[in-house]
Design a protein that fits this description.
This protein is an alpha+beta fold. It folds into 2 domains: 6-127, no CATH class; 138-291, Reverse transcriptase/Diguanylate cyclase domain (Alpha-Beta Plaits). 60% of the residues lie in helices and 13% in strands. The chain contains 11 helices and 6 strands. The chain has a 6-stranded mixed beta sheet, sandwiched between helices.
């Protein structure tokens, strides 16, 4: 089911977990209020467009199924209000026909709104993905990284940030063509994704560089993951005649710096230290400073 885009809706984090039940209750109360108002005003005044408000609210916060349920409730409430207000019809079937038409109208609105929300969500996801590899792009990494920093700061748990650079990647492009280079980048992302946890975040930083964020992960845990994925990459690359290896700089933060940029600078610096020392290795530190590898 589509989740609401809280960034656009400006919903405070402390009430997000209550958004679905609140959305349902608010929709039902709104339909009840409209029904009473419709009944009091009589059949001469139409309130049809106002029923779209709770229907839209339910669809936005609770998904298409709840939107349909509120549509049925709205149509039934409208029928009850018409009958209670003493409206006269030339045939007894007419109010029920009108109810069916209204239900179709409400249901169509629900479908169109849910499709629109789905398209917006797809566009949002695509905008946050690297189009070549499917990894997260740098914008998404920065947004998620800053949120994770705040979460880790509150929970006082360690976080590890790693920076990966492919050694000799330019030789692949020069010797085998850019198509082979693109395929290699996709293979790198697939290999990394298959060796990290769902809670970890991989992003393409640009070119042949990648960043990895490991929430709730200490030195031993992150070192084990990085060693495993580097070995998996070396196994995958065997037989392809690509002179490519990985240089990885990684920092486990037990006390978080003031910004994501400061964390990235430390991991990036370690990665370049690996490059200078001969490439194809992992250099891992803990911060506050304590060298472990």
């Amino acid at each position: 089911m589509l989740e609401p885009n809280y960034g656009i809706l400006k919903i405070p984090a402390r009430v997000r977990r209550f958004s679905k039940p609140l959305g349902f209750v608010a929709s039902v109360l709104a339909v009840g209020f409209l029904g009473v108002t419709d009944c009091i005003s009589g059949s001469e005044l139409s309130f049809s467009i106002f029923y779209l408000i709770p229907i839209s609210f339910a669809t936005l916060f609770n998904g298409r199924t709840m939107g349909f349920l509120v549509s049925v409730l709205s149509a039934a409430t409208w029928l009850a209000a018409d009958l209670a207000s003493g409206g006269h019809y030339s045939h007894v079937v007419i109010p029920y026909w009108n109810t069916a038409v209204r239900l179709g109208y409400f249901s169509l609105h629900t479908v169109l709104l849910s499709v629109l929300l789905g398209m917006i969500e797809q566009m949002r996801v695509l905008a946050l993905r690297d189009p070549l590899t499917g990894a997260s792009n740098w914008r998404f990494f920065e947004e998620t990284g800053r949120r994770e920093i705040e979460r880790m700061r509150r929970s006082k748990k360690p976080m590890t940030l790693s920076y990966i650079d492919l050694d000799n990647f330019k030789l692949v492009n020069d010797s085998f063509g850019h198509g082979a280079g693109d395929d290699l980048l996709k293979m790198v992302v697939d290999t990394i994704q298959s060796n990290i946890r769902p809670t970890d975040l991989l992003a393409r930083a640009g070119g042949d560089e990648f960043a990895l964020l490991f929430p709730d992960t200490d030195v031993q845990g992150s070192r084990m993951i990085l060693t495993r994925l580097r070995e998996a990459f070396n196994t995958t690359i065997t037989g392809k005649d690509y002179p490519v290896t990985m240089s990885i700089g990684s920092v486990t933060f037990t006390v978080l710096p003031s910004s994501l940029e400061a964390m990235l600078a430390k991991a990036d610096g370690l990665m370049y230290a690996v490059k200078k020392e001969g490439k194809n290795n992992i250099k891992h530190e803990q911060w506050p400073p304590h060298v472990v590898a």
